[in-house]
Write a sequence for this structure.
């Protein structure tokens, strides 16, 4: 906790150190008049986070002093939000309304001390008497009422004898105070309204400035953290507590900057308008910045807390880019969720020369995600690809299927287009293709070079699903109101197709749909019969590009540009040098298209790759690590800034090739090399990472896994062979990824026979 402390934690630490309090007590005090939004998440993260960090307590208090706008529905939403973010409030939920009797007693105290009076000026007069920033105010003639008269009037106000606005209770402070808030602030006002908790018991309700400080005191709060707009209210906060001469310790107020996010509205009033006027489907509409909305969209609590952590706690207001929030969810899901295939706009492809059917093994996770698991992809002659992934007259830089250009079906074969079938209107209705039998993913000996791999689904087994494509709710950075709403913030696709495993195996509820983005099974509308997926976020920030292109671009063009970036993800054609490298990598070195493409286009990567290759001739393995891990490091750095060298990468790959370490451990070693620049052999040695290829070590682990999962063993033996991957995964996990995967595979197969 002591590193990079924010100013609030610094204060808390000093107070604890000085013995000012024996324990830190904070509170999150929302008004239950709407669903909490991402701004509240920041406040929740701060208040509960500080209590957690210093072994203190944090209360959840409904600041329910306004009878006309509050509702138990909002109370429930607030509780849900705090719990979903992973926090626990101390004791029961608290309510300012529970303190009404106590607050009333304190008010009588103030009157008796001559520090409060009932004023009978009209609202307008009160405003007029208050003066201006440059002119002092005047005190009301009613300020001289006797204690008895004030007590009597207050009692009758409470009992409902007067109309709204007829009288108010005010503190007697200073009508000439420089801080205008201190010019005899209102403490109570009359409201003839039904309160959702206290019913009709009260006809007066405390003002924020009076109720808040005392509620904090009553609860034993030590640090009352609020947003900057309350800075000027701090004097009243202190005045009330000090004037009453309460038994110490008392709380103090501290202010931090409110969270504002571009392309977003954050006031509950504006959000309520969106709900009431039906611009959205409700408070939990996945486009809403409410916690309920973000949650239904598919955001994880971790991503939101990480966002709150990243933006930090400052004392000056600023606007945060919504791209940062989107980055946080992408970053979180990238290392967690299975990759699956979904076709949003299906175009039928018949593979003429393919007979029968087969099941292709496909990992759910890419190499760089440390998770295990795979599924079978059914494959036969009729499949669907994305309509956009075929072009009859391709623009420059189009890398997917064309009449002249072959493409790889992800996890499957390379196909070439043979014939384009159209309807009477010239619309393409089907592609007749041929496949290349020797090009199967993982054992490709075809020598055919392709520039990309596309998603597809088998026609016979694909499942129809509804996909809801969400985009930002507003089109402009600083939206004012409904006139700025993005008309394309929701697009519903009723007949998208997904591979079957997604529905039958349900490896997760969140997925990456290859090349489309991250998606979430809608928690409300999803059923196995009619699955619904919400788009959480695209794979990259498509708005950034758009903004950089300049906001003057006409709207339709902007849309087109955005669409291109999202769906294409492609860049300009290669120059001659790049093309020559690409050809060499694919033809001679047999690297796959994607890797070759990456290495060929970035000079520093290709130089790095070739330098490593000169030391250890293992092109595929070296290329993979350079195109992924090394490329990641070189995104923001130059080769001279790296701590590791091509020679060391060659050495690392050599250890993989010699089965000293597994691929997975190699990644771990690489991370260490990035940090320390240490030789891989030394890292492996000192951290005991040598691969376990000793069956006498692995077999007992397999026995253990089987003993712990008797149900799965039963199921496997009863024919559910998909569970094979489960057992292998468990064993690898138990060895911290150190077991030789091939050996584990073989031994598990033996054991399960
Ligand atoms: P809004 O203006 O959006 O209706 P509010 O401030 O009226 O919000 P409250 O329910 O009174 O909402 O807020 C509860 C707590 O959350 C307060 O401590 C408030 O300071 C904090 N909070 C509200 N909005 C933000 C925000 N955008 N950033 C940080 N904290 C916030
Ligand atoms: Mg408020």
């Amino acid at each position: 906790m002591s590193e990079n402390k924010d100013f609030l934690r610094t204060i808390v630490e000093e107070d604890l150190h000085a013995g000012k309090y024996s324990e830190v007590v904070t509170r999150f005090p929302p008004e239950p008049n709407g669903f909490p939004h991402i701004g509240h998440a920041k406040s929740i993260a701060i208040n509960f986070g500080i209590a957690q960090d210093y072994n203190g307590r944090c209360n959840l208090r409904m600041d329910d002093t306004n009878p006309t706008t509050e509702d138990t529905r909002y109370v429930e939403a607030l509780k849900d939000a705090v719990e979903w973010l992973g926090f626990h409030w101390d004791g029961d939920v608290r309510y300012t309304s529970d303190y009404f009797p106590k607050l009333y007693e304190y008010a009588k105290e103030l009157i008796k001390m001559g520090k409060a009076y009932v004023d009978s000026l009209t609202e307008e007069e009160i405003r007029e008497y208050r003066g201006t920033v440059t002119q002092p105010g005047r005190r009301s003639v009613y300020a001289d009422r006797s204690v008895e008269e004030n007590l009597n009037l207050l009692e009758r106000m409470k009992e409902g004898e007067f109309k709204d606005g007829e009288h108010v209770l005010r503190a007697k402070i200073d009508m000439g105070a420089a801080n205008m808030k201190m010019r005899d602030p209102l403490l109570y006002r009359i409201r003839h309204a039904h309160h959702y908790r206290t019913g009709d018991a009260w006809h007066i309700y405390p003002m924020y400035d009076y109720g808040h400080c005392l509620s904090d005191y009553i609860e034993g709060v030590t640090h009352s953290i609020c947003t900057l707009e309350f800075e000027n209210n701090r004097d009243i906060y202190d005045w009330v507590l000090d004037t009453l001469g309460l038994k110490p310790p008392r709380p103090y107020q501290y202010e931090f900057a409110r969270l504002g996010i571009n392309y977003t509205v954050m006031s509950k009033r504006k959000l309520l308008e969106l709900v009431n006027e039906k611009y959205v489907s409700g408070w939990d509409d996945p486009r809403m910045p409410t916690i309920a909305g973000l949650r239904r969209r598919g955001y994880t609590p971790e991503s939101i807390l990480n966002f709150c952590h990243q933006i930090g706690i400052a004392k000056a207001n600023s606007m945060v880019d919504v791209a940062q929030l989107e980055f946080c969810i992408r970053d979180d899901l990238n290392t967690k969720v299975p990759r699956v295939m979904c076709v949003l706009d299906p175009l039928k492809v018949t593979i003429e020369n393919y007979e029968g059917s087969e099941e292709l093994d496909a990992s759910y996770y890419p190499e760089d995600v440390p998770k295990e698991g795979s599924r079978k992809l059914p494959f036969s002659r009729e499949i669907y690809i994305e309509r956009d992934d075929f072009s009859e007259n391709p623009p420059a830089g189009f890398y997917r299927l064309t009449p002249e250009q072959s493409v790889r079906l992800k996890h499957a074969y390379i196909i070439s287009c043979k014939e384009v079938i159209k309807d009477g209107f010239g619309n393409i209705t089907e592609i007749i293709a041929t496949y290349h039998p020797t090009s199967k993913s993982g054992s490709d000996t075809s020598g055919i070079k392709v520039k990309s791999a596309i998603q597809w689904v088998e026609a016979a087994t694909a499942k129809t699903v509804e996909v809801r494509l969400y985009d930002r709710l507003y089109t402009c950075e600083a939206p004012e109101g409904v006139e700025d709403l993005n008309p394309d913030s929701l697009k519903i696709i009723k007949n998208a197709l997904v591979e079957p495993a997604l529905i039958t195996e349900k490896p997760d509820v969140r997925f990456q749909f290859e090349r489309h983005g991250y998606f979430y099974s809608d928690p409300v509308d999803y059923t196995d019969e009619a699955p619904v997926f919400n788009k959480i976020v695209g794979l990259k920030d498509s708005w950034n590009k758009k903004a950089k292109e300049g906001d003057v671009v006409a709207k339709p063009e902007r849309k087109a540009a955005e669409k291109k970036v999202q769906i294409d993800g492609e860049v300009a054609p290669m120059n001659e040098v790049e093309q020559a490298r690409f050809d060499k990598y694919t033809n001679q070195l047999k690297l796959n298209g994607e890797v070759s493409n990456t290495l060929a286009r970035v000079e520093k990567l290709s130089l790095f790759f070739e330098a490593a290759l000169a030391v250890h001739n293992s092109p595929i393995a070296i290329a993979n690590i350079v195109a992924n891990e090394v490329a990641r490091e070189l995104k923001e750095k130059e080769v001279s800034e790296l701590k590791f060298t091509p020679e060391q990468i060659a050495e690392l790959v050599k250890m993989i090739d010699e089965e000293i370490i597994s691929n997975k451990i190699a990644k771990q070693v690489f991370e260490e090399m990035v940090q320390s620049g240490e030789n891989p052999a030394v890292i492996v040695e000192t951290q005991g990472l040598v691969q376990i290829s000793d069956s006498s070590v692995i077999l007992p682990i397999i026995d253990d896994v089987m003993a712990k999962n008797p149900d799965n063993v039963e199921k496997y033996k009863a024919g559910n062979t998909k569970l094979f991957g489960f057992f292998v995964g468990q064993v690898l996990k138990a060895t911290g990824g150190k077991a030789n995967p091939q050996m584990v595979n073989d031994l598990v197969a033996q054991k399960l026979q």
